[in-house]
Every structure is written in C-alpha cells, then in structure tokens.
Specification:
Elements lengths: L1 H7 L6 H10 L3 H8 L2 H9 L14 E2 L3 H6 L1 H14 L1 H6 L3 H27 L11 H18 L5 E2 L17
Parallel strand pairs: 1-2
GO molecular function: formate C-acetyltransferase activity
Pfam family, one: PFL-like
Protein name: PFL domain-containing protein
C-alpha cells in the first residue's frame, strides 16, 4: 500500500524502510493468515465466510447482518437465551469461572441489543420479530442489523455490503 502511494505521488520509498517492513515486521494480513486453519481458508475462498479480519486491516468493521432477515429477532433472542442458560452448570460448578462469567455477560448484552434492535425497527413501522418473507423485507431487515451495529460502534468505519455474494435472493429467503 505504501509503495503504491509513493508511486502515485512520484516519490520513492526509502529502501531501508522497505527492508524493515518486509523482512523484520509482520503485516496485519500475515498475522491473520498465520492463524487461519485450512477450513477457514477454504470457506474464505468460496465466499461462505465474509467479514474476516484480513479483508480490512485498516480498522473497518465488517459485520454479517443477514441473520436478522434469515431468522428474525425473536429466534435470535431465544438462541441467545439458550446460550446463556447452557452456561449455568459451568457457573455453578466453577468451570472456567472467569471465562464463563465473561461469556454470560457478553451474551446478556447481545440479547439486550437484539431487543433494542426490534424496538428501533418498530419505531420505523417494521416488525422484525420473524424472518423476512420477501426480498424487500430481507434487505430492510438486514439494513436494520447494519444500523444497530453502526449505532453500537458510534459510527465507526463499517461496511454495509462488501461482496456481491452477500445477499442471495432468488425468490425466497433461506430459513432453518
């Protein structure tokens, strides 16, 4: 990226800087790819996984907001409650106590945020409690997911849709 910027402004990159940052320092992407498993790499290449941290090493947040359209908020909230409840035995038995407490706190925050997203959509006149039933709803429900994420990140640099494969709407919405 730096070399491209230098070239664009008819400047030459100091050879010593280039040597330091190519031979002695690890780039963001090198660090990320070092920890990817072969399965993650295959899913990334096929487009099954999007929003991985290698795509934007510049601090941009890439979320996957489709779950609101696919499942509806009520299902997602029910799932979060089940996740929260499933940790009860670990909490009571002191299993990985610090990690269990932290995870329960995060899940509780996610459950609360889903409820707030449902309230936000209602203020716009939409009921996102169930899955989207058509393409227009799928896009609208997905956009509510994006808006909620932007709100929670105070407008940090966030991508709406970075790939053509993001929404697949051949006439129906996938449901489980």
């Amino acid at each position: 990226m730096i070399e491209g910027s230098c070239k664009a402004y008819n400047r030459e990159l100091d050879p010593m800087i280039k040597k330091i940052f190519t031979e002695y320092r690890k780039t963001h992407n090198q660090g990320v790819f070092d920890v990817y498993t072969p399965d993650i790499l295959r899913c990334r290449k096929s487009g099954v996984l999007t929003g991985l941290p290698d795509a934007y090493g510049r601090g941009r947040i890439i979320g996957d907001y489709r779950r609101v359209a696919l499942y509806g908020i009520d299902y997602l909230m029910k799932d979060k409650l089940a996740q929260f409840t499933s940790l009860q035995a670990d909490l009571e038995n002191g299993v990985n106590l610090e990690q269990t407490i932290r995870l329960r706190e995060e899940i509780a925050e996610q459950h609360r945020a889903l409820g707030q997203m449902k309230e936000m959509a209602a203020k716009y006149g939409y009921d996102i409690s169930g899955p989207a039933t058509n393409a227009q709803e799928a896009i609208q429900w997905t956009y509510f997911g994006y808006l909620a994420a932007v709100k929670s990140q105070n407008g940090a640099a966030m991508s709406w849709i970075g790939r053509r494969s993001y929404l697949h709407l051949p006439g129906c919405v996938h449901r489980t």
